[in-house]
Amino acid sequence: MLTAEVWIAPGQFSFPLNLPNEFFGIFPTGTIANEDMPWATEIDTKLLKLPSLFWGNYTYCEAAFYHRDSKSVLVTDAAVFVDRKPPDVIPFDSLVDLGAEDGFTISLLRAVDFRGGRTLPGAGATRADPKGCASVGWKRMALFSLFIAPDAKNILKPSSSFEGMAGKFVVSPIVYEIVFQFYRSKVGAWAEDVGRWRDARRVISAHFPICEGNNNVNPFNRGASPVARFVRAFDWAKSTDAAPVEYVDRDDLASLELVVGALRFIRAVPVPTK
Predict the structure, then answer these.
(1) Which of 15, 113, 224, 244 is the most exposed place for a label (fewest CB within 10 A)?
(2) Could you tell me the domains of the chain?
């Protein structure tokens, strides 16, 4: 792919030092805009560019694309589709180890007594049932990927928190906590714009599996198109203070909320709009 062009979203940055893209080996051809792109005859573009954070030095920007011929929507970090089954790319043995009660992660959690987890009950998965272990391992992996440090009780017994998200699009908790919750109207309007690509057959996020057709849907979402399900993940933006309903246990957000509290203390992020 030596002849490939690299186009970047506006406001790319590195933290804590805002170094140029070239420092990281990225030599952009240009910057993405909503109109007049060289691919405009094939691909539509919708940018979500939010006001600056971190004392005005950094800007969050998400680019969504719609490839007309394949009827595919492509997004980056705004929301991901949490499938009930793990992607094939994840090694089965890794899922088994994460799901087993004697695996490294659970053993470490109990050893350090993370949030009182030493004495809490586990999921009961054993290596004698590798498929069962792998299922628990995927649920734990999804929670770690989304919440970074979910609550100990939900790490040990992940089914309840996982079921709140399974078969649905979920707004990335770290993006919601640090960015989206402060700009609800702008985020909601962008999601509605993406929803106008009604004939899309699939939504492809940069993380987690593809949502295609009516595959892997739960009863709550049955019959909805992939792009309608994507938009539904942003229903919280219509409220002044509601969090995404997919976050069924607010305790999973505790670590991220500590980060936001620290950022708010140093005036790096605004206070949520009421």
Answers:
(1) 15
(2) 7-82+167-265 (3.60.15), 92-163 (no CATH)
